[in-house]
Amino acid sequence: MQGLTTQRPDPFWKMLDSNVQRQAAGEPTATIKKLEGLLYTVTSEDFGVFCKDTLPKQSVAARSTDYFEARFTELHGALSQHCRDRSSTRFIADWESFSNSVNNYLGKYRPLVNLGLPSASANGNRFPVLDRPLIANLLKNPGPTLSASQLTAFGLPSSKKVEFLGFADQWEKTRLALQQIFPIDPAKPAGAKFQVVFRDSRDQEFAANQILDWSIQVGGKTANERNAKTTTLLWRPGDSIVIQFRFADQSNLVPVSEPSDPSLQMTGRSVRLTLDGPIALLDLIQRFKVKPIGGQTDRMLLKLEVPVRLVSQPSGQASRRVITFLGLSLTSLQDDSVVNWPLEIPVRAPSLKGFCTDAAGGLSPCPQKP
Question: Which of 3, 151, 193, 282 could form a disulfide with 111 if both were Cys (CB 3.0 to 4.6 A apart)?
Fold first, then answer.
């Protein structure tokens, strides 16, 4: 090779000769060596590792008359495009697999259902409950990594990007809270500890000052107005939760039963809210949780609406609702970390159905078939 190049006087062959001599001398500036190295790594490394780690570290000259440098630049560009195509195609496949899996449970199984208000949502019991093995499977699959920069690189429309990032934030909070209550390790006990604040956020109440003798009972232990600040309750799956209170004798309001909510029972002036089943605590939260007032972050806020009528009115339908709030501070059984149960459980993971890899290696709506 060296003999052939020295016999040619034009610049191209002189450049080849220079490269060959530098390569033979082991000089790192030989661009033929640079091209050779790229060819070697692309054939010897795992391609995923090559695309993620090796290729981005390769420096590309902006413009060069060097033959091997130019070929290196061409190959680098083609490989970069292939890596982008590969990344986009794999992301679509991985995301669709994840979203199809998680959407089998979101909005269909408690506690992944936003039961919401009003209390008539007690029919939420029609939703089956996720058992612990299913929860563990969900927790083991966080889904593909999402970031704003990644979605921007894929070229997703801004509305789709907001949808994906919103879901990712909600799902991460949901996964963390579930994991604190239901550890992935089946040898660790499931459950939570909590304290309650009766008549929290009093400036937002309506007529709740007529309610007396608050108590909440879980697992045979009771917290009431006198000991609530010093009483920690322990809930485990299967434990029922009973909240009781009564209206003062001199109150002009009387609680009224509603057939649509059998969990709320009235006896005279007394009210009893009972939640049972395997996840009573989470059903309580999912039914009554509202956005914290005043930016409080140390506890969740539950809004209770009690149907009532005036004493002067005939018995029957309620004419108004008394509004009161409970504050709930949850901690993990494992490490006493605060459990921040999310205000909103994601309803459904977004889909990339109808998106394809485009010429730039990004994601765009698939072309319409003629």
Answer: 282
